[in-house]
Amino acid sequence: MISYTPCSIYERLTQLYSEEDSKATHILILNLIENYKDKISSSNKQLSEEDIILITYGDSIKKEGQKHLKTLYDFDETFLKDIINTIHILPFYPYSSDDGFSVIDYKAVDPELGSWEDVENIAKGSSLMFDGVINHISQHSEWFKGYLRGDEQYKNYFIDTPPDVDTSMVVRPRALPLLSPFEAADGKIHLIWTTFSRDQVDLNYANPKVLLAVLDVLLSYVEKGAKLIRLDAIAFVWKKFGTNCIHLEETHQLIQLMRDVLHKLAPEIIMITETNVPHKENISYFGSGDDEAQMVYNFALPPLLAHGIITGDCRHLNKWHGELELPSDKVCFFNFTASHDGIGLRPVSGILNDAEIQELITAAEHSGGRVSMRSNGDGTESPYELNCNYMDLLSPLINTQSEKVGRMLLSQSIALCMPGVPGIYIHSLVGSKNDLDGVMLTGVNRSINREKLDWEKLKNELNNPHHQRYLVFENYRHMLKVRKSSACFNPFAPFKIYELSNSLFCMLRESADRKEKVLVLANFAHSAKTYENLPFQGRYSDLITQEFFDTNVLQLEAHQFLWLSIEG
């Protein structure tokens, strides 16, 4: 046994628990670290311009007669080896609902997908991001079943809420009931806190035993090869009656504590917080810049990019981007445009006005998409997210393949140039469309962007020069190769925004040593436009096309973008 000695972990614990509980829990955490010491190897890998992350379900691509993780491995080996070095496999654990986000067993692999051997096989050639779905767990998990049985081990693992507690202040991400009744083995009815659905029961971190169990889970993920851990819905993780139960100080302390524990064994592990909230609230999870998340999902980017491309006016994107600040040079954004979830609207609260948000909603509806709502706590509901394939969202009522592809590539070119690390959703990479059949089949709006692809059909389409998938993927592939070759796109490299026109995106990226400069230009207008007085005089070379320019007056076609290397 390890004896108790004060350290930063203990200091964190005292912010959450009583002195007695803090001392006891600290000793148990040190024992946990000792148990994993010989199971986890560390490295000093640093993020660079070569880090690009694919976001995918373990079964996004299927091949008959083959485990899905093996098919993912085949896709990686066949199409991704020279362009993407990290794969975020969305929850691959046994689950009961929400496409994996209602976990039954944190430490198992869903047998429909494969085994830990399959996960480790992918990890041999790619870094991996795992999901820490630790705000809640499935009602069918052993943890919750043990709680209902009255097992001492699981006592107070969940939040049994008195019926007279006022929850009207609680911020809701859904329009479903916050409290769900469950009958225990003794016949007693418990009102259990369920932020997302009845099947997803929230864990009670006020009980330090829950913290210990979750730390064990996270360390096991590092043991299995996780280099990055995504903390799902982490903003809601700590509950306190009489508050809004989001972004509480205890939540930040909890994340900092988790980072402290993981970094005792593997300081290179990156924690990414997923908080689909207004931008200023979102970036609070960077902490001081050296103690909390190293990466934060850049949730404002997808709706701002979409609004700019749909309207032909990128002034809001320019202004927001120009004001981006980070608390240190040790943290960065995780830049994405689409994911397994919808396109959040809360992140642009205070950036876009109601009429501009309505423009996005209208575009989604005209593109065949859906709008999901959340409860406001006063009996009303508000739009929460747009459920729509990103390429379809960008091109409402447009049927021309070339224009749809052009708009999509414009959006991705911006995301790839942003300071930070790019995260590319599988359906963006391979040029998918709305899966309306999926929505009809499941009745779930988010199914619209979670299509399951047939491996043989996908291969044929990605090799067909006339197919939309080919046109998106091959151009995307080229951009990724170019991005990886320039130190200007290092996640931490300096950037500057020039607001020259409402339809022009103009950003300078520089290498850390200031020896290389790339000027990113993108015409958001729906027609050709001439732009004068660009910020640099001299000779430009477009990294994408290798075309040269000797003027600071350029005409750009509709949705054209350039990555201009500045010479001299």
TrEMBL record:
Keywords: Glycosyltransferase, Transferase. InterPro entries: GGa_phosphorylase (IPR033746), GH (IPR017853), GH13_cat_dom (IPR006047), Glyco_hydro_b (IPR013780), O16G_dom_2 (IPR045857), Sucrose_GGa_phosphorylase-rel (IPR016377). SUPFAM superfamilies: (Trans)glycosidases. Residues 66-401 form the Glycosyl hydrolase family 13 catalytic domain. The keyword Ligase does not apply. Substrate binds at residues 98, 136, 230-232, 340-341, 446. One of its GO terms (biological process) is carbohydrate metabolic process. One of its GO terms (molecular function) is glycosyltransferase activity. Gene3D superfamilies: Glycosidases, Golgi alpha-mannosidase II, Oligo-1,6-glucosidase, Domain 2. It comes from the Bacteria. PANTHER family: SUCROSE PHOSPHORYLASE (PTHR38784). This is Sucrose phosphorylase.
